[in-house]
Every structure is written in structure tokens, then in C-alpha cells.
Amino acid sequence: MIQLQGITKFYAGSAGRVEALSGIDLKIDPGEIFGIIGRSGAGKSTLIRCINLLERPSEGHVLVAGRDLTVLDAAALRAARHEIGMIFQHFNLLSSRTVFDNVALPLELIGMTRSAIEERVTPLLDLVGLGDHRGRYPAQLSGGQKQRVGIARALASQPKVLLCDEATSALDPETTRSILALLRDINRRLGLTVVVITHEMQVIKDLCDRVAVLDGGRIIEQGDVFSVFTQPQMALTQTLIRDVIGHETPPGLLERLSQPHLADGAALRRLFFSGQSTDAPLISELSRRFSVDINILHGQIDEIRGRPFGSLLVLAKGEAAQLEAAWAWLAERDVRVEVAHVQ
Amino acid sequence: MSSELLSLFWDSFVETLIMVGIAGGIATAVGIPLGLILSITAPGNVLERPLLNRTLGLVVNAVRSTPFIILMVAIIPLTRLITGTSIGTAAAVVPLAIAAIPFVGRLIEGALREVDAGLVEAAQAMGATPLQVVRKVLVPEALPGIINGLTIMLVNLIGFSAMAGAVGGGGLGDLGIRYGYQRFMPEVMAMVVLILIVVVQLVQTFGDVVASRVDHR
User: Fold this and answer.
1) Which residues of chain A have a CB within 8 Å of the CB of B124?
2) Average pLDDT for consecutive 10-residue bins of chain A (343 residues)?
3) Which residues are in the ABC transmembrane type-1 domain (chain B) (predicted)?
4) Are A265 and A317 in contact (CB under 8 A)?
5) Domain B3-214 part of CATH 3.30.40.230
């Protein structure tokens, strides 16, 4: 649905050429929710603005629905933009217009009649749960409600693609969840292709099918969200994921573990679960079967798109041979076992 | 107060009203488009035209830096061309309007600059033409500021119209100078000031009410 080919964007700065994006190649499939994550200054905003040419790339091509936007003239580009909806971090609603008239704006631009607009906008307001607020002004709405208006407005022209520019970054966690649920719902119901940029890994985890990690204007890693979360390759990705999933051992625990008597005769292991392994009572079965004592020190199990994953830090005591057998038994059940080191 | 003086007050009041009303109307009609052009042709805006923008800016600044009393006599040939005379109320309208146009232009430009660039970007992302951005986004969003600007302009024009006596334009300010100052009638001067205070107060209040009526921020 969206293809970015060799996108490079540079600005003329005082200290020479500043490159915001360098050679970005990306392919986003129809109907998927694609996330782009990076820290501030990584070039995320520039990248998403290149998709609808709010920023014109210095080099490269942008194909949306098979059409190269970079070669279109102004009028054709405006027409193409009707097929690309966009929502913003600060909503960008017109304060002078009511909820209804804000959603109607893109339809007014294409010269739709008032009755046709009414027919289109009313169900959209119901879809985003704002049917009762149509006559209100943005200033009378909460942040979450404003973003819902933004979403309805973006959908008004029945686009094929929805671009979300830090759409939840100005919202509290609970409102963020409800907006993400709405986006997911819209994606399923309308088969819309959604591109999300964010600095929050939580958003990627809750919403996206695939993710690309942007750093210094380059894509350093990409893949489906589950595998990026369970097997992050790059250090930055690991750092970003650590914010969401507590792989980090608490410092107090580390200190206690470093005392020799505790680890004496015991094996410290980190167990990584992914896929179906978390549904079985593995730990208690392991304990009975191999007569080892398992002390769970720290851990977290989460799920992505209904697939559970996570890790446990355990201290196991038992006969050496039995322990070895126990680890082998776990490995057969898709649990990755690593020796945990304590400094 | 004699009835003669009273009718003098009335006539002067009407003259002020005519001068401010007509000059204000012209300044609004020309100043708003001028402000729009100044705003949208500025670098980074929807119809970026740096050369036009800089040229217009220079002209606006030149008119605004000319003291009104000098402007009034300097453009007498133009005034005569337009009104057929260089003295009287009608003749005073021309310099008043010419002084007010660039003033309004700058005020409108300022009001439009206050509109969040994100709104323009959102409209462009929807496929709005530059004209649609102006009509659907910039003007409606800047409307409270535009009305405030027009109010300031009217109040300023009331002040400037006092100088219209220099070209025989009449008006309340002229009455105050000729009778109050030159004929030693301080009560006339005080009365003129009092009336002007009330008029300015009314204009300002009306402007504020209208501005808050259209302001949904």
C-alpha cells in the first residue's frame, strides 16, 4: 500500500547539510498497522510527513496505492491526499468550528453538498463515540475526545491510509488505551492501512503488527512486533523494550544475590517464554518431576496480539544432574534458558 | 450652553462619524486583503512570494512611518484627484483611509500569524488549496484577532480625525481646538474630550463583545 524508496531528506544548516533521513526503504502492506519508533530527533515526524508530502523528500520516491506522489503536480497531489487521512499529537482541530463542522471540513473542501456531508459525518461521529457532542466546540472537549474528533475528521474522506503522528503522546495512559483500541477497531472494520509514529514502545506493543526502529534518520531494525519484542537485535531496540517489559533486575535483588551464601549450591537462570509455553504449569511440573526447588525472584509475563511472552529470573536448588535435566526439559517446551550473571 | 453651540457640537460629531466611518470602511476593505497577502506570502506560508512580501512590507512601513499631519498635506494632489477638492470633510477621508490601510494590514497580518501552523498543515494534509486554507482555516480562526484589530483601528482613527482640522475637515477634535483653545472656551474643550471618551468606550466595548462572540477558543 505504501512504498518508500530511498527517501533522503536534508536541510541546509549553518554547519552544512543536515541529514534528517538517509536512504529509507520501507514497504507497508494493505490493512496492516505499521509502527515507526524512535527517540526524539530520530526523524520520525519528518518520515511520516514524507508519506503525504507535507515534507517533500530531497531524494527518493513515495508510492501510495501504487501511485508515485513525488511526480504529481499540485492539483493531483491534493486529490491524492484525500486518500490519506492524518491525525496529530495536538489534534489540530479548528477552534472556530463545532465537532460536526470540524469533521465536515475535508468534505467541504471537495465540494460535497450539505446533505451528503450530513449523511457521511453522522455515522462517523457515532463510530468514534461522539454522537452527542456534535454541536460542541473543541475547547469544551477533553484531550481524548479531541483526538476522536481528529480521527473522525481523518476518516471523513474515506481514505485508504491513516497516518498517526504521535497521536497519543499528549494523552494520559487510560485515554491512550481507549484511543489505541479505537484505532485497532477502525483498522479491522474498514481494512484501513495505519502508519503510527511514536516514541512509546507501549503503543507499538498494544497496536502494531509490524515495527521499524528509526535512529539517526535510518531504519536500524524492523520486523513483526512479536519477534522484535522477543528477539531485539540492536541495543537501542533493547533499551526501548526495557521501558515496557521489566527485563531489568531490581538493584536491591542484585545486591542480595551477590552475597555468596545465597547463590551457594543454587543455579541462577533466566527463563524466556514466548508463544504457547506460558499456558502450561511448567514451573510446578518441573519442580515435582526433577525434585528441584524453584525460587522465582523476578519476572514478567505479557502478551502481544494474544501471544504470551516474558521472562522469569529463578534460583533453582537440587542435584546437579537433575538440574541439567530440568533445563533440557524446559528447552524442549520452547523455553529458552540462559545462565544469569550477577556482578 | 447656547443652541448655536449645541448645533456646532452636533455637526462636528456627524463630521467625525463620517470621517471615521468612511475611512474605517475603506481601511477594512483594503486592509484585510493587504494583511492576508502580507501573511500568506511570507516565507514558509501557503503562498510564499518573498519578493512581493518584502516590497509590500516596505511600502507599508513607509506609509506608517510618515507622521499623519505630514501625510495629509503631502497627498493633497491625490486627494484632489479623488474628491475634487483638497479641503473639507470628504478631503480628510482620503488621508485618514490611506494612513489606516497599512495599519490594518499589519494588525490583520499579526492576527493571522497567531493561527497555529498545525491547523494549516492539517488542512494541507486534507488536500486544501491555498485559497481554501485562507477561507476555511486562516480567516475563521483569526476572526477574534481580526475584530480586535479593527477595533483598535477605529479608535486610532477617532484620534487621527482630530488632526483633520488642518485641511478643514471639521469634526470634534477641530471644534475643541478652534473653540476650546483658540477662543478660550475650556468648557468646550472638556466637553469634546468627554464625548470622545464616551465614543471610544462604546466602540471598544462593541468590538470586545463581537470578538468574544466569535471566539470559541
Assistant:
1) 54, 81
2) 92 83 93 93 91 93 93 94 94 96 96 94 94 94 95 95 94 93 93 94 91 93 89 86 72 75 72 72 87 86 79 86 89 84 63
3) 13-204
4) yes
5) no
